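Example record

One chain of 463 residues, shown exactly as stored in the release files.
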Amino acid sequence: MSEHILFLTGKLAEKQLHNILEKMQPDFTYTVHQLGLKVAGLMTADMIARRLTDTFGADRIIVPGRCRGDLETLSAEKGLPIVRGPEELKDLPLYFGKEAQKLDISRYSVRIFAEIVDAPNISTEEVIKRAHYYKRYGADVIDIGCLPSTDFPHMEEIIGALKHEGFTVSIDSLDDNDLLKGGKAGADYMLSLHESSLWIADNVAATPILIPEKHKDLASLDRAIKAMQAKNRDFIVDPILDVLHFGFTQSLVRYHEVRKNHPDIEIMMGVGNITELTHADTVGMNTLLLGICSELNINNILATEVSNHARRAIKEADLARRIMFAAKEHHMLPKHIDPGLMALHETSPFPYGLDEIRELAAQIRDPSFRIQTSSEGLHIFNRDGFHSAIDPFDLFPHLHVENDGGHAFYLGVELARAEIAWQLGKRFTQDQPLNWGCATDQAEQTVDLHTFKPAGTTLQKNK
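Predicted structure tokens for this chain:
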């Protein structure tokens, strides 16, 4: 027997909800009930408790996505599950698809080494601070970078302090003395050893990352691998990822060759060589590089956040490794798993067409402005008129808020958001910040739908 769902809505959205459900041809039966209010988004749990006297034999109730209040308590009172649907009606088909295919992204296989590249020049306290920052965004190992021809007198102190704080630590240098000293100080990993410096691994317990003796020399790398295997020691291999136009494609071929020749060894990829040295948004680069790692079973990456444009690289790599793990596990494309890597664009930026927005506007009977976007541009409307533009400045003469500074400021902010969303192809929702995915730390990550949002500063009276 199929599930019967009760959809609660408002007067303005009732017709559209019927149309969407009819086109969906769902495998459940349903009832649409208009709760006696105009705007569905203004529905609250208390209102439902007062007004809903018949549940129409439903197995569960779906309310508008912006419905505020405690739905758990309401569910207990009504005796059936009451859940929020999507914020936009047009997303209802996708909502049911996501509900059936929601994937777990808590797991991953790639270990992130996050390098503090200038450790010799900063204090132990600053290193600890950065380490906690990197760990918060996904780092598994804190990599202490040494600098050529630079004294590092507090290396042991830094490693000891990090270990005391519970961090896994690697020491990163091409100088044998630095690696030996770091290994003896308690580092868990050493970057990097080659065929001629394997003796260091005999003197410390740290796991070495192996590189070719000379750049591109895979034969020397193979000899180093055999030597470590003969000693029955753990190790990780890094064939070295080259920068674009200086051997990048050929270096990918090397990674493929190493994996083909050594199917079971641990491999590392230094993704920072691409994210740092390419002036492009790092979220896409991290996504592609972690996809390559997933295909080649590369389970270690070295990431950095030195350049300003790469300041979210660790966080992006963390989400990318989780998405790729889920996609690989379920034999699917890395699509519709999590939207966090869609920083600049969205899969469905304009849920409503211009004709649909005009139809909604024709039903408005109050002076409050609504702002929506479509592929044609920005649209602002109330009971007094409907206006469209591409440039928000073209709309100001029609709004008549010259003598209402607070209202003018509010509309300016919202129209600016709408313009940015329209230009980039992002979803715009009035009164909500634009969603930049994992590229930013939003001050208001999610709206608490148990509470009502307080009046903004433009609605507060001056004292």
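Notes: The CA atoms of residues 97 and 336 lie 10 Å apart.
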